[in-house]
Design goal:
homodimer, alpha+beta, Arc Repressor Mutant, subunit A, Umud Fragment, subunit A, two-stranded antiparallel ribbon, 3 helices, 11 strands, DNA-binding
Chain lengths: 202, 202
DNA sequence: TTTTATACTGTATAAATATATAGTATTTTT
DNA sequence: AAAAATACTATATATTTATACAGTATAAAA
């Protein structure tokens, strides 16, 4: 999905606020009043930009004809939290799920299938701490440098991944930890997913 | 609650249908069209009856200004995201809100009033990066060592806070940044809230 | 470099809309 | 039996509202 500009976000937010508060979408003039614009065309053009980006739809020829597209279901997505130790086997089996949390699926760039609770300090230099919840998008695809959940023959680990031909490099972000080199000719390794975000509880 | 007549129920149903289908309430004319009335006043008087029975409210002087009363509370926890630059003034004013995200309120230890989008690298050594969203619980209370949103005379900043008598220490987590010392006898500073969590989007 | 997108002000107007007024008729409540 | 509510048609109009057109200016993309 295309990113919204700061102003477009404000307009979108203004629409949401209006619907929540009054029960119906705002007029151009109301958007202008709330955001301090002096011309109705300021609102109009932002609305058209949002429409172009498929965020809202505008019913032609009717007042307040704005509706927000792909509204998520009320409860939002419930996403399981899994301990890193357990991530190896049947990842999403219920016995591995520590809890479920509700998150806005639109929060992260890609769909989040589960949160991985981080153990150890191997990624600490890049701001990933013990007990942080790393949002994982399940996929076997990755680009070099992605943060990946990798299942090796005897472990599951969260590292930066680099692949060159049959050689896999799993690189930690901690100088006290050594990178892991895997030769796919001799050993097996599978990418379970990539990290697309992080949640930390203080 | 007073009972609705058959016609009033039809009109109410028509309103609900319109909101579900289009995202906004109907006009008088649209109600007439759907229910086969030939005069806009037919719809009007039914609406006034529904208003009198406290089923709906009608916003005077605005089109489609119908809203159905006692609706369920809106989506779970919708929490605004605010840029650090804007955090100073009218913090939660709509023009400062970049977007809203839905989060599980139980996710963090304390109630989250807003997310602060981090600017700069002053907390990078403790895993708080630029554009991270720090979950802020609005309060003026704090303990020494808390991560606090502090409004000084000319800035708003996110730092570790330590207070001893009239002296305030705002400590960054980056050796390239100097701690800020504030003598409350000479300068003013206010704690706007404390950080209770963090969300990062990759 | 040119084009496209963003981000507005300012003015104007056709169309959409709420809303008042004047009726008629039936049903329900007091 | 009278008053009030219901349930409409019909017409009119002030206001709201969407929307087009003409500009200016800046930033980003091609």
């Amino acid at each position: 999905m295309k990113d919204l500009t700061a102003q477009q976000s404000k307009v979108l937010n203004c629409i949401e606020e209006s619907i929540n508060k009054t029960g119906f979408p705002p007029t151009r003039a109301e958007i202008c009043q709330k955001l301090g614009f002096k011309s109705p065309n300021a609102a109009e053009s932002h609305l058209r930009a949002l429409e172009k980006k498929d965020i809202i739809s505008i019913a032609g020829g009717s007042s307040r004809g704005i509706s927000i597209k792909n509204k998520k279901s009320s409860s939002g997505g419930s996403v399981p939290v899994i301990g890193l130790v357990a991530a190896g086997s049947a990842t999403l089996a219920s016995e591995n799920i520590e809890r479920e949390i509700n998150v806005d699926p639109s929060l992260f760039s890609k769909n989040v299938d589960y949160f991985l609770k981080v153990k150890g300090l191997s990624m600490i230099e890049d701001g990933i701490y013990e007990d942080d919840l790393v949002a994982i998008h399940k996929t076997t695809d990755f680009k070099n440098g992605d943060l990946a959940v990798v299942r090796t023959e005897d472990d599951v680990t969260l590292k930066y991944i680099f692949k060159e031909n049959h050689k896999l490099l799993l690189k930690p972000a901690n100088k006290d930890f050594d990178p892991i080199h895997i030769d796919l000719k001799n050993e097996s390794a599978e990418v379970e997913g990539i990290g697309v975000g992080l949640i930390r509880k203080n």
